[in-house]
What we know:
Blueprint: H1 2-7, H2 12-22, E1 36-37, E2 42-43, H3 52-64, H4 68-104, H5 116-125, H6 129-146, H7 158-165, H8 168-180, H9 189-204
Antiparallel strand pairs: 1-2
Amino acid sequence: MGAxxxxxxxxxxxxxxxxxxxxxVDGLTPDMKWPVDxxxxxxxxxxxxxxxxNFITDFFQWLGQLPSALWYSLIALVVLLLLIxxxxxxxxxxxxxxxxxxxxxxxxxxxAVDQPQEELxxxxxxxxxxxAVRMTYILTLRHLHxxxxxxxLPNKTPMEYVRAVGMMPFLHLTNAFLRVRFGQYPATEQDWxxxxxxxxxxxxxxxx
Length: 208
């Protein structure tokens, strides 16, 4: 019996060696054993499968490791680009408003076109709505001048005629004309139909 008992004696040194060779990490339950590098005695890194979740996680982990100085530089760059965008848009809007103001100060020659009604008909047929709005305005000015409601002069500006007529439909028509005068705003069929309605109200002296 003594020999049998000796064979059952625990060899702790051998068990410890087997545990390391098998790759167990101390402190884990049997179902939580993690493979280790037997040479370095460190847990093995499981390679990334390359899916979206792992990529996003790794990316944010990488971002979190960036130095604070680099973060501040990136934030400053974003703020700078935003300021440049805002300033450029402000300058663009200022130029557009200045151009509209300059247009409103320029005289309009109502006799520059010999047959404005024919030109209007041609523009409508060709769906040239910018030209249709221009001719509608010219025809309205000519009608007002020939009816004695305004005194057209080569040096008068559109806004001077607005003050002389004193009607909201004519003001709307003038603004529509100024918007498309140099093709800065593409007109639509609805724009021309609105201009034609304002023309009719202006000519008959009614209000919108």
